[in-house]
Every structure is written in C-alpha cells, then in structure tokens.
C-alpha cells in the first residue's frame, strides 16, 4: 500500500517555496493511498520561539493545509503534539542514531552548531522527523529538496534498526517535486526562500500575500545584467529561479523551452506574477472562509489526531517489543 507522510513546522508564515515544494503536492496524492499530514509543532520548539505566536502559526498552517485543498475525509490531518507517540518513538530512534551523524547535518551546521543558546532538540530534530515518518510506515515523503539529507537519515535509521532488532520499519523514499523543488529568495537567489525570513522580506512570497504585494515582489526580483532569458541556475540564478517558479505554477516541466518563449526579463516577470497570483487566488479565498471558522479546523485536527494515534500505535508497539522493552 502507498503510504504518504509529510509535515510543515509552524515557525513562520508559509511561503511560495513551501507550497510548490510540498503543500501543493499533498492535495495531488491524497486520493492515491493512505495519506498522513501533520503540522509538526514540536519541531518549532527547537529554535527560539514565542508560545502565543507558535499557537497562532499552528492554527494558520493547519488552515492553509485545508485551504490548499486537503480533504479531511481522504487524509489524516493533525497537530504533531496531539500524538505523543511521535516523541516516544523519537527516543527509541535516538538510541539508534549517532551523535556524529547528527552533527554533520547541514541545517544544524547552518542554524546552530557551535552557537551559545542552541537547543539540544535542534541537534536531535532530524531524529524526531524520522520518527514522524517511520511511525506511519510511510513509503513516500513529498518534501522540498532541502530535506534530502534528513530523509536520508530517516532511511539510515530505519535500516539500522531493522538490521539490529528485526524488521519493524518501512524504508521511506523521498518524493521531490519535479520542478521548483528548491525555490530561491527573489532578492538573493543563492539562498533558499524560507519562512524564517523576516516578515517583510521583499524576496519572500507568502501564501497569504495579496496580489499587489506578490506582483511587486516579483517585478523587483533580482535578475542579472544580461538580457537573454535562459534557464541556467548556475550562471543566472535569479532568472533561473523565476523560470522554475513559472514552470511550477503552470505545470511545465520543460524549463529550457519555457525560457525560450521569452525575449525580455520584463515579460517573464509579468507572466510569473500572473501565474503566482492565479495559483494563490483560490487558496486565499478558501483560507478567508475557513479563518472565520476556527472551531471547524480544531475539530478536524482533533479527529485527525485520534486517527493518527491509531495508525501509529502498532508500529510503536512493534518497535518497543523488538528493542527489548515491553513484556
Ligand atoms: P525553515 O527555513 O525554518 O526550515 P522552511 O520554509 O524550510 O523553514 P519547513 O517546515 O522546514 O519550512 O519545510 C516545510 C516543507 O517545505 C518541506 O517539505 C520543505 O522541504 C519545503 N520547502 C521549504 N522551503 C522550500 C523552498 N524554498 N522550495 C521548495 N520547498 C521548500
Ligand atoms: Mg526547512
């Protein structure tokens, strides 16, 4: 059976990168197998956070899942902290993982290694992520390209645990987006567009940005001093990123031929702005309706948590049994 798991951590307002790399693709797979999607709020505790903002972002992220078209009757949608089994399995996997391999994680190196005030949980965060995935015996994980190394770790831990104690886990495959798997910042196209960018960052498109804001950000995107529109991420990362975004929005995987249709940066940017605005419009409309009705969102999350716990329980029981706990 096809089992899909993915999550987004509520550390900031979701970006176009989150949508093209992950969220949008959740709705595409939801009728094709068992699909489990989580707002992974425990992960948000691994970096400096404020409780009230975390709660608000968790609600906003869950609402955006629904606004992006997730059907709570077809998939399981829940808040990670409502299902304590994640933390429990994470500990078993911490007893499978090595300090050395966590220390080598790129995101840890970039975000915390060697800095005072870095939380222990930032180091162990990829293990909790592995637990999220392995708990559901997910076969597939739709995530952006930046998660490649973490997914590799989840696979390694599954294999290592299975070899040591007997087969409990399914080894998951990463399912990257065909195009726009790594959307870059419009002002600094060598850097990933991230929801941790400052709220008013001009190079970061938020899913709830109104159309005029989207257009302004796209029109001011950094390109280069050349004039030819070509798809070359190395030589011309700003233009390449705009073409990736356009291809992602309109569903055109052949980015070279997409680039060939343009003779100026101005016309490319206009089409990118139009495509992003068109992609976000229905989502924003549904968001506005749902935001008026927080009770419904909360009820969906609670029901989802119950279902998630049911699905994960047999895996944890088997893992505890295998590793020498339980009777
Ligand atoms: P942070 O920078 O704090 O890690 P984030 O924007 O990467 O924030 P995550 O919660 O880590 O958010 O990621 C949610 C999902 O969105 C993941 O599948 C991730 O790979 C994907 N994603 C994040 N940023 C991008 C991006 N710029 N392009 C494509 N996919 C992305
Ligand atoms: Mg990330």
From TrEMBL:
Entry keywords, A to Z: Aminoacyl-tRNA synthetase, ATP-binding, Cytoplasm, Ligase, Nucleotide-binding, Protein biosynthesis
Localisation: Cytoplasm
Binding-site list for ATP: 9-11, 17-18, 144-146, 183
Chain ranges for the short sequence motif 'HIGH' region as given in the UniProt record: 10-18
UniProt record similarity statement: Belongs to the class-I aminoacyl-tRNA synthetase family.
Protein name as it appears in the record: Tryptophan--tRNA ligase
GO BP terms in the entry: tryptophanyl-tRNA aminoacylation
Name of a matching Pfam family: tRNA-synt_1b
Stored SUPFAM superfamilies: Nucleotidylyl transferase
Quaternary structure and interacting proteins, as annotated: Homodimer.
An example molecular function term from Gene Ontology annotations: ATP binding
Amino-acid positions noted as binding L-tryptophan in the UniProt annotation, renumbered to this chain: 132
Reactions this protein catalyses: tRNA(Trp) + L-tryptophan + ATP = L-tryptophyl-tRNA(Trp) + AMP + diphosphate + H(+)
EC number: 6.1.1.2
Naturally occurring in which organism (per UniProt): Thermomonospora echinospora
GO (cellular component) term, any one: cytosol
Function according to Swiss-Prot or TrEMBL: Catalyzes the attachment of tryptophan to tRNA(Trp).
């Amino acid at each position: 059976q096809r089992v899909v798991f993915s999550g987004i951590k509520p550390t900031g307002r979701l970006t176009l990168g989150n949508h093209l790399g992950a969220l949008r693709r959740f709705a595409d797979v939801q009728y094709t197998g068992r699909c489990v999607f989580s707002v992974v709020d425990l992960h948000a505790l691994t970096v400096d956070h404020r409780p009230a903002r975390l709660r608000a972002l968790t609600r906003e992220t869950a609402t955006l899942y629904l606004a992006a078209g997730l059907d709570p009757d077809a998939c399981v949608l829940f808040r990670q902290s409502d299902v304590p089994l994640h933390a429990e399995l994470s500990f078993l996997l911490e007893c499978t993982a090595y300090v050395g391999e966590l220390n080598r994680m790129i995101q840890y190196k970039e975000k915390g290694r060697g800095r005072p005030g870095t939380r222990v949980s930032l180091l162990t965060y990829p293990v909790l992520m592995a637990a999220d995935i392995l708990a559901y015996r997910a076969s597939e994980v739709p995530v952006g390209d930046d998660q490649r190394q973490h997914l590799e770790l989840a696979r390694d831990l599954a294999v290592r645990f299975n070899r040591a104690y007997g087969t409990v886990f399914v080894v998951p495959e990463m399912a990257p987006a065909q195009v726009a798997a790594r959307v870059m910042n419009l002002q600094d196209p060598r850097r990933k567009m991230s929801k941790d960018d400052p709220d008013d960052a001009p190079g970061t498109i938020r899913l709830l940005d109104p159309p005029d804001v989207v257009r302004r950000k796209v029109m001011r995107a950094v390109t280069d001093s050349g004039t030819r529109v070509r798809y070359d991420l190395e030589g011309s990362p700003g233009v390449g990123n705009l073409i990736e975004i356009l291809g992602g929005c309109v569903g055109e995987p052949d980015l070279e031929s997409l680039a060939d249709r343009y003779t100026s940066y101005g016309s490319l940017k206009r089409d990118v702005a139009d495509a992003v605005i068109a992609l976000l419009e229905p989502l924003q409309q549904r968001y506005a309706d749902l935001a008026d009705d927080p009770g419904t969102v909360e009820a969906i999350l609670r029901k989802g948590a119950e279902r998630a716990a049911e699905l994960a329980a047999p895996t944890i029981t088997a893992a505890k049994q295998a590793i020498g706990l339980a009777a």
